[in-house]
C-alpha cells in the first residue's frame, strides 16, 4: 500500500486528510500528535505495522507487517455529533462485526465491551482515547485493529485470550484494504445516522455469550458470576446474579470470560 493508492481507494468516503505509514509506533499515538498540530475531523491514520500498538489500560496490541489492519479515525467536536463518547468504542466494534458479516458472511460477535470474536476467539479490538479540556470534549481517536492474515495472530504466550484472524475463520484470503474501507464506511454511517435506541439494539444483537453464564474478572476482587442478559440503556452490561438480582456493570478494568458448565 502507498498513500496515493489509499487515497484513491477511499476517495468516495467523506474523510478529512489521510495519512499512511508502512511502520508507526501506534496509529492512535500518531493521530493524537496530528490533532495537536491541527488535524481535521474524520482524518485517518493507517499503518501496515505498529511497533507500539496500544490496547486498553496500557496493554499492548501486536500488529506485525503485511497481515493486519490498523487505523485510527480522528473525531472532533466541530461537527455537531449527537453520539455520546462512551458509545464510540461499541460503535467501532459493531462496524467491524457488521462488515465481517455482510462482506464475508462471518458470524462476528462483540465480547463486551470492546473485543470482536470469531468462533470464540479474538480477531479485532477497539481503543478509543479521548481528550478533554475541563468538562469540554476536545477530541477522540477511534482506533481499530483487525487480524486479517494468519501472520497477524500472536503466539499464545503473548496474549491472555485465544486469538484468531479473518482469513483463518473464513478459510480463504481477504483483501484487507477492502475490509478496512468497509469498516470505515460503516463507522461513518453509524456516526452520521446515530440513533441511540437502534444502536443499542444492534449492539445487543451482536453481544457474545448472551444467555450464558459468564464471569467478570476484576483485579484484586472476587469474580462476579452471573447470566449475561444483555445491555442496560446506557450500554452497561446486564447480569442476572444467582440470587435473582440484576447487576449493571460499567466498562472499566474488567475482563469478561465464559464459564464452562
Ligand atoms: P480481556 O481480553 O482479558 O478481556 P481486554 O479485552 O481488556 O482484556 P485489551 O486491552 O482489550 O484486553 O486487549 C489487549 C490484549 O489483547 C493484550 O493484553 C493481549 O493479550 C491481546 N492482544 C494483543 N495483540 C493482539 C492481537 N493482534 N490479536 C489478539 N489479541 C491480541
Ligand atoms: C484492545 O483490544 O485492547 C484494543 C486494541 C486496539 C488496537 C488498535 S490498532 C489501531 C489503533 N492503534 C493502536 O495503538 N491501538 C488501536
Descriptors for this entry?
261 residues, alpha+beta, BirA Bifunctional Protein, domain 2, SH3 type barrels, 2 domains, seven-stranded mixed sheet, five-stranded antiparallel sheet, 6 helices, 25% helix, 31% strand, binds adenosine-5'-triphosphate, binds biotin
Protein model, in words:
The chain is an alpha+beta fold and 261 residues long. The protein folds into 2 domains: 3-205, BirA Bifunctional Protein, domain 2; 213-258, SH3 type barrels (Roll), CATH 2.30.30. The protein is built from 6 helices and 12 strands. The strands form 2 sheets. Strands 1-2-3-7-6-5-4 form a 7-stranded mixed β-sheet, with helices on both faces. Strand 1, helix 2 and strand 2 (44-50) form a beta-alpha-beta unit. Helix 3 packs across helix 5 (176-192). The longest helix is centred in the middle third of the chain and has 17 residues, at 88-104. The protein is globular, with a radius of gyration of 18 Å. The mean pLDDT is 94. Adenosine-5'-triphosphate is lined by residues 55-56, 59-62, 114-115, 122, 125, 147, 152, 154, 159-161, 163, 255-256. Residues 26-28, 50, 53-56, 59, 61, 63, 70-72, 114-115, 125-127, 143-145 line the site of biotin.
Number of helices: 6
Extract low-pLDDT stretches. Answer: none
Estimate the mean pLDDT confidence.
94
According to DSSP, the number of beta strands is: 12
CATH superfamily of the largest domain: Bira Bifunctional Protein, Domain 2
N→C terminal distance: 46 Å
Predict the CATH topology of the largest domain.
BirA Bifunctional Protein, domain 2
Amino acid at each position: 500500500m502507498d498513500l496515493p493508492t489509499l487515497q484513491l481507494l477511499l476517495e468516495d468516503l467523506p474523510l478529512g486528510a489521510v495519512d499512511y505509514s508502512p511502520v508507526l509506533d501506534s496509529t492512535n499515538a500518531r493521530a493524537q500528535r496530528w490533532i495537536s498540530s491541527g488535524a481535521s475531523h474524520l482524518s485517518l491514520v493507517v499503518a501496515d505495522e505498529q511497533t507500539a500498538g496500544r490496547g486498553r489500560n496500557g496493554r499492548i496490541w501486536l500488529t506485525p507487517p503485511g497481515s493486519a489492519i490498523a487505523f485510527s479515525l480522528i473525531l472532533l467536536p466541530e461537527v455537531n455529533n449527537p453520539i455520546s463518547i462512551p458509545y464510540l468504542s461499541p460503535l467501532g466494534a459493531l462496524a467491524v462485526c457488521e462488515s465481517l458479516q455482510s462482506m464475508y458472511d462471518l458470524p462476528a460477535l462483540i465480547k463486551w465491551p470492546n473485543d470482536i470474536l470469531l468462533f470464540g476467539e479474538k480477531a479485532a479490538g477497539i481503543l478509543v482515547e479521548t481528550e478533554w479540556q475541563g468538562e469540554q470534549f476536545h477530541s477522540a481517536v477511534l482506533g481499530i485493529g483487525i487480524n486479517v492474515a494468519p501472520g497477524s495472530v500472536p503466539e499464545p504466550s503473548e496474549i491472555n485470550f485465544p486469538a484468531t484472524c479473518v482469513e483463518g475463520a473464513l478459510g480463504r484470503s481477504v483483501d484487507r484494504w477492502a475490509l478496512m474501507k468497509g469498516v470505515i464506511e460503516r463507522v461513518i454511517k453509524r456516526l452520521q445516522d446515530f440513533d441511540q435506541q437502534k444502536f443499542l439494539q444492534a449492539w445487543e444483537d451482536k453481544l457474545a455469550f448472551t444467555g450464558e453464564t459468564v464471569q467478570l474478572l476484576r483485579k484484586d476482587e472476587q469474580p462476579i458470576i452471573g447470566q449475561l442478559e444483555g445491555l442496560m440503556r446506557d450500554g452497561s452490561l446486564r447480569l442476572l446474579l444467582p440470587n435473582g438480582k440484576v447487576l449493571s456493570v460499567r466498562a472499566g478494568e474488567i475482563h469478561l470470560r465464559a464459564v464452562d458448565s
